[in-house]
Amino acid sequence: ETIENLVAVTQALGGSTNVVLHLGALAAALGLRLDLDDWDRIGRRTPLVGRFRPAGRPTVSDLGRAGGVPAVLASLAPLLALDLPTAYGGALADVAAAADWRDREVLRPLDRALAPEGGIVVLRGNLAPEGAVVKASGVSPQMLRHTGPARVFDAEEAVQDCLLGGRVRPGDVLVVRYEGPRGGPGMRELSLPAAILVGLGLGDSVAMVTDGRFSGATRGPCVGYVGPEAAVGGPLAALQDGDVVEIDIPDRRLDVLLAPEEIAARLRQVSPPSRTPPEGF
Known about the structure:
Helix content: 25-40%
Largest sheet: 8 strands, mixed
Strand content: 15-25%
Distance between the termini: 35 Å
Mean pLDDT: 94
Order of helices and strands: HHHHHHEEEHEHEEEEH
Number of helices: 9
Strand order of the largest sheet: 1-2-6-5-4-3-7-8
């Protein structure tokens, strides 16, 4: 129940997609399992009650002034298990009851939520059979559905050079593969290319898809954590420049417009790049 509370709070505040990794690891250390189906299930029932920088104007400091985590618990009370002990005595219900909820615009009540579902959305499709993750609360409305030609890169540095070289066009879908746990190695964080994308004014016209990850500072149509990753034969490895990629966040889909036979045939020809991990890695 504590783990599910943590997922709900993250969903309600549009928290970092990295929390998907952290809570999954925490659950595993406790002998539990938390997977993308759990994030999807809890996200569908948890409204978005706060949107913070860079996805919105308020900051985390504003959240503190609005009442902080106790106020978040009060806002989400009907959706949480609050009969659980805290680390310092008493129950979560006591914390929620004693909350000083001072600003109901920065932190909304459930009946005036910013969105009916949580900020983190799980996508599936023929490009992500095991799922992918996007912070939907940081995506502009016109990019919630996007179809465009793939621009394929096999490393973070390559997409970064393309962006800084002015070679990205509105409508493109930048696909950065071989940056997952094995491919990176270590599931590199592509926050810098994501920031460059937004800084160039392309956040409302260009999407990014990767088997790497993003940080809480990421906004825009950046889909990460695509599984299975390209380095273990995931469908991203089959993509070529010009393939048409469809991202549909409301319908939770991530697809390429290719026949299954074509994807399978291409994957049989794939030769992943050879990378030697740095010493001590």
